[in-house]
Design brief:
four-stranded parallel sheet, globular
């Protein structure tokens, strides 16, 4: 052990103790900060299911692989960081004793090969990620870069450390090879051995490379310990926990149903809630749950959510990534005030600390930071005090601008693409809940929608007695529930759009006729039906949603009284009604077997109850409704129906789980789109790019928005006057041969709903289990 080893080793140990001490202290502070969030006991189990999900997502990169060009490089870097940590700690021995290595492992060729692969993979992966970041630099116009708004200095720092670490691993191994220490076959040292042959035999060289490896890690530890908001670095640790504690224990993403409104760790009972004691959504950063704080801390600023967001891509101020990072920065800036016991009431007055307000006396210190001198804020960083005075949502210095909050369509593209399972939509709706229910601050257009829902039971304000107008002029009778389901197999939930919106009525009529032709026995509720409450809930009016939902659950339970769970069948044409009935009503006591009309019709076609005999010889592109596709994973049934109708399917570039929203979700259907390009026009432009004669969809909201977009483009002279927006049910109806008899079944097939119980006892088979849709493109967007 010479002077070089003693000097470099001494520096490494001394700085290492400091760096590791800082790092451990910061981790402890992280835990304290995240615990500032509200309790949430829904994340605790089951342990095995959550653990399996976590291991699968990080080990196989199942979510990271949604961007296939990035996944392999990130996978290399991740394993280089995890297992390469052994090489880092090995360097503490190598810097003092160049011939040192892990006992047993050092002379084991497979271990040597693993270290070689990690070293090379880390360098290659780090360089590749830096190149990808450059190729997607925000210098690209029209918001094409998913890294717009991300902190490039932090990212390049982390990538540089990754590369240096890899160089250090290979360098130490090559220098050892030059000394002929721990002879390793070339197949297990395919880079370090050839490099070692060109290096001089020098013990000092081994120590220098070990020192480089240690110093890169030491600098990294010190920097990240001092920067708690560096998500691109801290996600290496927090991502494991964020994935484990994701909302859905079965591994699903936080889509479909919304997170219920919670207070003090329990679901809030609105009938007994007290605004002075309970939290109504999120009106301050501390109103978010600890999982929300963990979400904010884990964001890597990769921008996948941003690249998929329809609002961002049409010039709106909302970027899911920037929204999360703004909440993160605000949370950590305000944390010292909260940890000191600070709390403000709805009027903004201090109620958590006692004493005299001394902020005015110390206002001059705000720019440079530092603690307040005396009074109630003594010892608290003045920057934290200033941060505590900011409104969470507000157009005058608020953390989140109202235009950002209300631009969201709740399409779920951000949640679907996030590799670390951040729950953007839940957080956005929680902020909307506070704005609507406590502040009464929301877009004025929603006033009319709320009043119509409350007084008329539908967003259009139509009379309940008109819910059956769509049945007029049909050449068969539509059965209406009269107090007894009888032998009806399905309750046909028409929905508000299907009953009142002229374009959606065509879908309703088509579905009713197809069910009639197939001999499916069903009934409708007519005037007893009411809005499911989806637009109210997504707009943040939880009270109105609960009122509508409980009313509907009571009606549906009475309709299905006496029927077992699997026989309580509901078919629905609206994707939003489908999602609410299937995913949200069970929490309110409404247990039903809900299918979308595309699923039921597809089953009827497969089982020969509907036989297309007149092919629709047209080119059709299909638009995936967000609440049918991303939120409920129904992708194949509608496409199979398009194929069954005889039409040629032309997929849009963005389809499947990357489909672009029509712009109607999140109650945006009833809000004016005043900023940027209209989302429905953007989607129609993409659809027109496939040169279709028809644009098909499976949701009345989508149909309305796309029709308006086509009309706009036709008036601009961009689209042909022959282009039409239809529901897939209409395509199928055109292709089905009609007969005077009310049923059309294959020879020998039993009539659905007849006395033959064999078929009626068969469960509805999800049609998305057999993949048939066009695969997503291999490259990244």
């Amino acid at each position: 052990m010479g002077a070089v080893q003693l000097t470099l080793g001494g520096i490494s140990v001394l700085l290492g103790i400091i760096a590791w001490g800082m790092f451990i202290a910061t981790v402890a502070r992280f835990v304290r900060v995240i615990r500032l969030g509200q309790p949430d006991g829904t994340r605790n189990g089951p342990f095995t299911a959550r653990l399996v999900t976590m291991v699968k997502e990080f080990a196989v990169h199942t979510r990271m692989a949604k961007f296939r060009q990035v996944a392999p490089w990130h996978w290399m870097v991740m394993w280089g960081f995890l297992i390469g940590s052994l090489a880092l700690f090995e360097a503490y021995g190598e810097v003092f004793v160049p011939t040192w290595g892990w006992p047993v492992l050092e002379d084991w060729a497979p271990w040597s090969l693993l270290m070689e692969l990690l070293g090379v993979g880390t360098v290659v992966g780090g360089v590749a990620l830096a190149i990808i970041r450059q190729l997607n630099h925000p210098r690209r116009a029209d918001r094409q870069s998913r890294f717009a708004g991300s902190n490039f200095k932090w990212a390049y720092f982390v990538e540089a450390v990754v590369i240096v670490e890899g160089v250090g691993i290979i360098g130490v191994r090559a220098a050892k090879a030059a000394m002929h220490v721990h002879e390793t076959p070339t197949w297990a040292a395919f880079v370090s051995n050839p490099v070692g042959w060109a290096l001089p035999s020098s013990a000092a060289l081994v120590s220098v490379f070990a020192f480089i490896k240690l110093m890169s890690a030491t600098v990294w530890l010190i920097v990240v310990a001092r920067t708690m908001t560096m998500g691109v670095a801290w996600h290496r640790f927090s991502a494991f926990f964020n994935i484990y504690f994701k909302r859905e224990a079965d591994g699903g993403v936080a889509l479909g149903k919304l997170k219920p409104m919670m207070s003090k760790g329990k679901v809030l009972d609105l009938e007994e809630a007290d605004p002075d004691e309970d939290t109504f959504g999120a009106g301050a950063i501390e109103d978010f749950s600890w999982k929300g704080w963990l979400d904010f801390s884990t964001c890597t600023e990769c921008g996948r959510c941003q690249s998929q967001c329809p609002a961002w891509n049409t010039g709106k101020p909302l970027s899911p990534k920037l929204l999360i990072t703004q909440l993160r920065d605000h949370a950590y800036a305000k944390a010292p005030y909260l940890m000191a016991g600070g709390k403000r009431d709805m009027a903004g007055d201090e109620v958590g600390l006692s004493g005299k307000d001394d902020t005015a006396a110390h206002g001059a210190s705000v720019e440079g930071g530092g603690g307040a001198g005396s009074g109630m804020y003594a010892g608290i960083d003045v920057l934290a005090i200033a941060e505590s005075q900011k409104a969470l949502v507000g157009d005058d210095g608020g953390v989140i601008d109202p235009d950002v909050l209300w631009s969201c369509t709740s399409c779920g593209a951000c949640v679907e693409q996030c590799p670390v399972d951040i729950e953007h939509v839940d957080h956005i709706v929680d902020m909307r809940r506070y704005q609507v229910m406590i502040e009464s601050s929301f877009p004025t257009e929603l006033n009319g929608m709320f009043k119509n829902l409350e007084n008329k039971g539908n967003p259009w304000g139509q009379n309940a007695k008109d819910r059956l107008q769509w049945t007029e002029d049909l050449d068969f009778e539509v059965p209406v529930f009269d107090g007894d389901l009888g032998d009806a197999e399905y309750l046909f939930w028409v929905g508000c759009a299907g009953a009142f919106e002229d374009r959606a009525k065509k879908t309703t009529r088509a579905v009713a006729e197809l069910l009639h032709i197939a001999g499916v026995k069903y009934t409708v509720l007519g005037s007893e039906e009411s809005c499911t409450g989806d637009p109210a809930r997504r707009a943040g009016n939880e009270f109105l949603f609960q009122m509508l939902a409980q009313q509907n659950v009571e009606v549906l339970n009475s309709v299905f009284e006496g029927r077992e769970r699997k026989a309580r069948k509901v078919v629905v044409t609206c994707a939003h009604c489908f999602n609410t009935l299937a995913n949200e009503y069970p929490e309110l006591g409404g247990q039903f077997d809900v299918v979308h009309h595309t699923q039921l019709l597809n089953r009827l076609v497969r089982e020969k109850y509907l036989t297309p005999v007149a092919p629709v010889a047209e080119d059709v592109t299909y638009h995936d409704p967000c609440y049918l596709g991303r939120h409920n994973k129904v992708y194949d049934a509608p496409r199979e129906l398009v194929g069954a109708s005889g039409a040629k399917l032309r997929e849009m570039p963005r389809h499947g789980d990357r489909s672009m929203c029509c712009g109607a979700g999140g109650a945006r259907m009833w809000m004016e789109e005043k900023i940027g390009k209209r989302i429905n026009v953007e989607r129609v432009d993409e659809a027109l790019g496939t040169a279709p004669s028809k644009i098909a969809t499976g949701c009345p909201f989508c149909r309305v928005m796309l029709t308006d977009g086509v009309t706009s483009r036709q008036s601009d002279g961009v689209a042909s006057e022959k282009v039409e927006v239809v529901d897939v049910a209409q395509l199928l109806l055109t292709a089905v041969k009609r007969k005077p008899e009310p049923t059309l079944v294959a020879a020998g097939a039993p009539a659905l709903g007849d006395s033959d119980a064999e078929l009626s006892e068969q469960p509805d088979v999800p049609t998305d289990e057999k993949p048939t849709g066009t695969p997503l493109p291999e490259g990244d967007d």
